[in-house]
Design a protein that fits this description.
mainly alpha, 81% helix, 11 helices, globular
Length: 234
């Protein structure tokens, strides 16, 4: 779960960086409707700088060494599977048929629906805040700082705690119920005029709860598949 938490923090940190840059560089009072064009300049310059760093700093393993490494890892996995008494050749036949089971499929569909909240926030948070609640573009990006910052905190912290207690479902259950409750509280603000900090707290708690549910789910899902067939995980 800790590893899944750090993996999940990647795209969330991307969203956090976007909102931090937006809230720091977009003027509070817009006098020129073309103010947004400098955001493209910032993105372009940062992209070019990262490209240069990657071009100069990244090194790839030689094809021979990479092939040797992959063969070594695969052989080790197969040896461990055979040591557990698993018929590896038989276990690798018809992999899709083996994994088209209710606990795998239903869990996959459920998390896809669950993540609609996250996808909506990624695509439309600023639009919602400006059009529905009449916040400025600067403040809307500032609210993103709260949402993504607390989500990053949750996915890493809960990953560590879940591994510490070696349980998944209690975190998934508490996080899922709390996220549903916070989503309803968020929707109840529509049509009203909540303050900036009211929305900040709602978004922060909602996003934290999403992280509480999601990272243990990721760990649990891999463990569910592994319980079905360790050879396929290997």
């Amino acid at each position: 779960a800790t590893a899944m938490g750090f993996w999940t923090s990647g795209p969330v940190l991307g969203s956090l960086i976007v909102s931090v840059v937006g809230s720091a560089t977009i003027p509070a009072v817009v006098h020129n409707t073309r103010f947004w064009t400098h955001e493209y300049l910032i993105s372009g310059i940062v992209g070019l700088v990262v490209f240069v760093i990657a071009l100069v700093g990244l090194r790839e393993l030689s094809p021979q060494l990479r092939d040797q490494l992959m063969v070594t890892i695969r052989d080790r996995a197969l040896i461990e599977a055979r040591a557990k008494g698993i018929d590896v050749e038989a276990a690798l036949r018809h992999p899709f048929r083996q994994l088209l089971k209710a606990d795998v499929v239903v869990s996959s569909v459920a998390i896809s629906i669950f993540l609609l909240i996250y996808y909506t926030a990624v695509g439309f948070l600023v639009i919602y805040m400006t059009t529905v609640f009449s916040f400025s573009v600067k403040d809307s990006n500032g609210l993103g700082n709260w949402e993504w910052g607390f989500n990053v905190l949750a996915v890493i912290l809960i990953g560590v705690i879940s591994d510490r207690f070696r349980v998944r479902k209690p975190f998934m259950l508490v996080g899922g119920i709390a996220a549903a409750v916070m989503t309803v509280i968020y929707l109840m603000q529509f049509g009203g005029h909540p303050s900036y900090y009211t929305m900040a707290v709602i978004l922060a708690v909602l996003s934290f709860c999403l992280g509480v549910a999601y990272v243990p789910w990721m760990a649990s899902f891999t463990e569910t598949v592994e319980a079905r067939n360790p050879a396929l995980i290997a």
